[in-house]
Amino acid sequence: MVTYKQFQEFASAVIRQLPSNMSHQQMQAYIEDQGRLAADLRNGLMPPADSSAEYMLVYTPTIVTELGDDGKYTRYHNPNINDDNYPSNGEDGVVRYNFIPGEELKRSNGWVYRSDVETYFSERGMRSPNAAEALLPPAKDKQLGRGAHPLVAFIGGSRAAFIVHEDSLERSLNHYKGFDPWYTSYEFLAVCE
Prior knowledge:
By secondary structure, this protein is α+β, with helices and mostly antiparallel strands. The protein has six helices and eight strands; from the N terminus they run H-H-H-E-H-E-E-H-E-H-E-E-E-E.
């Protein structure tokens, strides 16, 4: 267990290593967005556990419906999530994903906004998935979206989001359009480019 003295020494060591050439604007940005400061420090000092996955995706004319069915959503599966509403196409192949905790994306008001998520993705070489890409991870891993961390996928090129979550031990697949802000307990699905 970390002692108070050890924590003080560690905090002092971190402060001594802060860059002396940081601009006033950079410092002010961290002062105003301490959540970002915390995330940057946390990621630098303790890189997150493996929060990525890879799955093979083969596009078919009914891929969205197939993956929705493969997810085995026992409580609810929104009927608007289908191939007519979300036609998906792309190249067959392995898709790499990252799962970004909402805590890393929150603003100082404690909420997560879609525009911030998409900016975060873009700055790190990631993007929002298409509908098929969004449905693939929860179809392959039935643990995604369970417990205290629902999985959110903003569908690229639309205002829609798919959410996989658990209610009374049953999984649901929901559909939201134009909804903002989001809870920090959610995980946000990104496709690595």
